[in-house]
Amino acid sequence: MSRIGKQPVSLPQGVSAVYKNAVVEVKGPKGTLRRSLPPEILVEVRDGEIRVNRPSDSKRHRSFHGLVRNLIANMVQGVSTGFSRVLEINGVGYRAKVQGRSLELNLGYSNPVQFPLRDGVEASVEKNTTITLSGIDKELIGQAAADIRSLRPPEPYKGKGIKYAEERIVRKAGKSSK
């Protein structure tokens, strides 16, 4: 039995869930999320919690068991508290600012880079070098953060670029002269 999959997902106050036709819908104070799930995985909602079960011990069912439970847990957390991801910009002259529904990033290229924000992703910039992405869908927030980071990944010699706040850049020594 999957250690993750057999744990129930408790619904906090103000959050409701409905499972119908292999689609789970979770409503909470921050919004509503819907996701289609593999139809063979059994999901039941009752008594303020969600339980995920699998019909057999086949490899496919075992692999989906923990995944489906974590996807549902992320949906519940998203509609109740939300998710955020912090990015830091390092480099001389590198900065960011929010303009409407897009980020304008000066990253050492000849022109500023315009990064449009998807629906469900909110961005704020502090001190021109710290970008905070927030929203209710963990997958959208993570993908947006990865896309922004890929515009100028951190390099190992001077550490210039965009990195996650918790990321540690392994630095390399430069050329040594004789």
User: Helix and strand string, N-terminal first?
Assistant: EEEEEEHEEEEEEHE
- Sequence of strands across the biggest β-sheet: 11-12-7-13
What is the top-level CATH class of the largest domain?
Answer: Alpha Beta
Q: How many domain units?
A: 2
The largest sheet is:
4 strands, antiparallel
The proportion of residues in beta strands is: 35-45%
- The number of helical elements comes to 2
Helix/strand structural class:
alpha+beta
How much helix, percentage-wise, in residues? 10-25%
The CATH superfamily of the largest domain is identified as: Ribosomal protein L6
* Cα gyration radius (Å): 21 Å
Q: Which geometry do the CA atoms define?
A: elongated
Overall average residue pLDDT: 87
List the quaternary state of the chains.
Answer: single chain
Low-confidence stretches: none
In the CATH hierarchy, what is the architecture of the largest domain at level 2? Alpha-Beta Complex
Our measurement of the CA-to-CA distance between the termini, rounded to an integer number of angstroms, reads 61 Å
Q: How many strands appear in the DSSP assignment?
A: 13
What is the fold named in CATH at topology level of the largest domain?
Outer Surface Protein A, domain 3
